[in-house]
Amino acid sequence: MAAPATATESIFETAGLPNASVLLDVIEACLHARASEWIFLRELRVGTGFQGSAAQRLDGFALNCRAHNSMKRICYEVKTSRADFLSELKQPLKRRIGLRYSNEFYFVTPPRLLHSSELPIECGLVEAGLLEAGGEIVLSRLEPVTHFDPAHRLYCKVAVPAPWRETPGPTWQFVVGMLRNQQRQWQERQPKPAQQQKFAFTE
Predict the structure, then answer these.
(1) Beta-bridge partner residues of 127
(2) Number of neighbours of residue 174 by Cβ within 10 angstroms
(3) Which helix (H) or strand (E) holds 181?
(4) Helices 20-31 & 7-15, crossing angle to 10 degrees?
(5) Of 183, 177, 184, 175, which Cα lies nearest the Cα of 49?
(6) Which pTM was predicted?
(7) Biggest distance spanned by C-alpha atoms of the chain
(8) Strand ranges of the sheet holding 56-64, from the earlier edge strand across to the other edge
(9) Tens of pLDDT along 95-127?
(10) d(CA 52, CA 39)
(11) Is 143 exposed, middle or buried (0-12, 13-18, 19+ CB in 10 A)?
(12) How far apart (Å, rounded) are the C-alpha atoms in residues 30 and 79?
């Protein structure tokens, strides 16, 4: 009897294209899995949004915690369709917050959705997907820039490296947004099931 498909597999297989949450799962599992080195935030709300000011959200934001890596900051903008990407190109100001606070800015898409020539010069491209079952994709044949999580058959390829940009440090407003994001993630995280001890009953 075949093992049941995971939630990630079922989304890939039934929907054809993964949603933004699944693509971020791939990015985190393949590129930022070390919690001691990376802080990975999703749907990061930049600013408080109080007093009628709209706060922009970043799909994914990774902060390296090690000083010898210059505390690298990476912003990820997820696009699951060409229409969504083309709409983004018409509104370049939407990227200004992500570019302001990151050293590298990446679009994240399913494989073969975009061509490298379509990317803005300041952006990189990461393609994320699910390794095919049955050995159709052999890990040893993948390009060196491909990263993978063999436990969940997830992979991502840095199709176009993003240029490094020296940017100013984060503002207090941005720091508050990060702290609120972390607080929300902790509150939404499901508690671990209580460990139950089995007792042997005797007659």
Answers:
(1) 109, 157
(2) 18
(3) helix 172-188
(4) 130
(5) 177
(6) 0.75
(7) 76
(8) 38-46, 56-64, 73-78, 104-109, 124-130, 154-160, 146-149
(9) 999 999 999 999 999 988 999 999 999 999 999
(10) 29
(11) exposed
(12) 18
- Retrieve residue 117's tokens: 């020539």
Q: List the structure tokens of 181.
A: 């994001």
Tokens of 188: 């939404």
Q: Which amino acid is at 15?
A: A
Neighbours of 15 (CB within 10 A): 11
Residue 17: in which H helix or E strand, if any?
none
For residue 158, with 0-12 CB atoms within 10 Å meaning exposed, 13-18 middle and 19 or more buried, which class applies? Answer: middle
**16-54 per-position pLDDT tens digit:** 456 888 899 889 988 998 989 999 999 998 865 554 445
The answer to whether 44 touches 61, Cβ cutoff 8 Å, is yes
Residues sharing a CB contact under 8 Å with residue 80, sequence separation 6 or more, in sequence order: 17, 18, 19, 20, 23, 109, 110, 113
- Return the sign of the alpha-carbon dihedral for residues 105, 53, 178, 185: negative
Kindly state the tokens that stand for 75: 């912003």
The first and second tokens of residue 6, run together, are: 């995971």
Rounded Cα distance between 149 and 26, Å, is 8
